[in-house]
Design goal:
Layout lengths: L18 H21 L4 H10 L17 H14 L1 H13 L11 H11 L6 E4 L17 E5 L2 E11 L7 E9 L6 E8 L5 E4 L13 E11 L3 E3 L11 H28 L13 H29 L5 H27 L1 H4 L4 H9 L9 H13 L2
Length: 389
């Protein structure tokens, strides 16, 4: 995709990614997280906070007027937002990934991208990929989409059914994984980019999940949606499994590191305020609870070290990290779940009550396992690589 003409470029905000700025954003999002989790509705309060902070366009390239923050800063941002509200964080992650064009991979239709940039300068504007399908499952497992576009006149007609499209009705744009069918030509796999307000697009509210309840990860239907010819572009799948990119593989994982940090904070708050009559002092002053806190911190340090260290290795030109990126993702996931489960288990019933935010953090942390590549696929690929030759 070529750059938008300079006369049309409108500078997008440069977000405050200082430690203090990120902490302030985390605190604001945390105010609404329990409410969002309880209702399961679109987390507008948190999303609008992201817009005010100028972070939804943080990865837009400089040639398009964006700040194009580094992979490391993007990870710091996602961790901070995930610590505040992971449902908001996953919508942010998908917007950051889908609006950062990568040569040779998914590309936007230029007029559609220009429209996205113009709207983003004025208001909250969100986007996401639509790749998975209810029958075929995730494209990360190698399946081809049943959703298709067929040539019709000067354009295409889109039909199909996509599942697990995070953001649901809050989304303004979609990048849809399709097969393009054109008379006299071989079918091509790629993407169409489109605004979500076109006729023929409808949503099925299928999301009723244990965690990330306000992520609105619903199904979307396309019924004879008319698109211009340029809307389709042949491309690789968006999961990058054939050419691992550390920032893309680890993007979603980072938000769960934030969840583990939130669990640590909740554990600290509870144990410092809990004073059993028989003990006569906060349980935080006992050796047992202090040891548990140390274990939680160890797991979070492991997750953060792997996340940030891997991105720093990649930024320094260490290509070897690509071979291990999928098992690094699995290791971070294990550390996140272990940290959160350790906090909950140490408190017994209080850790499982809905009056305690730890219960919510545990439900959210468990969702880290579903993001591709899943652990079984990562371990199998790593094992074959180690034993090859």
């Amino acid at each position: 995709m070529t750059a938008v003409h300079e006369s049309k470029i409108r500078a997008l905000p440069v977000p405050d990614l200082s430690d203090a700025g990120l902490a302030e954003l985390t605190a604001e999002l945390a105010q609404y997280a329990a409410e969002h989790d309880r209702t399961g509705e679109i987390p507008w309060k948190g999303l609008e906070a992201l817009h005010r902070a100028g972070v939804t366009t943080a990865r837009v390239p400089a040639e398009h007027g964006g700040p194009d923050i580094s992979d490391l800063d993007a990870a710091r941002l996602v961790v901070a937002v995930g610590e505040g509200d992971p449902s908001v964080a996953i919508i942010l992650v998908n917007t950051l990934l889908s609006t950062h064009p990568l040569p040779g991979l998914v590309q936007w239709h230029e007029p559609t991208y220009a429209d996205y940039l113009a709207k983003s300068a004025q208001r909250l504007t969100l986007a996401n990929f639509a790749g998975a399908e209810p029958e075929a499952g995730a494209s990360a497992r190698g399946g081809l989409p049943a959703t298709n576009v067929r040539r019709s006149g000067d354009g295409w007609v889109l039909n199909g059914h996509k599942g697990w499209v995070t953001g649901g009705k809050a989304l303004d744009y979609l990048l849809v994984h399709v097969v393009a069918l054109e008379d006299g030509k071989e079918p091509q796999v790629g993407f169409v980019t489109l605004p979500t307000d076109l006729p023929g697009i409808s949503w099925l509210e299928t999301w009723d999940h244990i965690g990330l309840r306000a992520s609105n990860t619903h199904d979307v239907l396309f019924d004879n949606v008319e698109l211009p010819y340029g809307a389709f572009g042949a491309a690789e799948r968006p999961n990058f499994t054939s050419r691992p990119l550390p920032a893309s593989i680890l993007a979603h994982t980072g938000l769960y590191v934030g969840v583990a940090r939130a669990a640590r904070a909740a554990f600290r708050e509870f144990t410092r305020s809990r004073v059993p009559t028989a003990l006569g002092k906060p349980i935080a002053e006992t050796d047992r609870i202090q040891t548990v806190a140390g274990e939680i911190d160890l797991q979070i340090a492991t997750a953060e070290g792997l996340l940030y260290g891997t991105l720093l290795r990649a930024a320094s030109g260490d290509d070897s990290v690509g071979e291990q990126i999928t098992i690094i993702k699995a290791a971070i996931s294990r550390a996140v779940v272990t940290a959160t489960q350790t906090a909950v288990a140490a408190l017994g019933n209080p850790g499982l009550t809905r009056h305690n935010s730890l219960e919510r953090h545990l439900r959210d942390a468990l969702c880290v396992r579903v993001h591709p590549p899943q652990e079984d696929a990562a371990l199998l690929a790593a094992g074959r690589r180690v034993l090859a030759g």
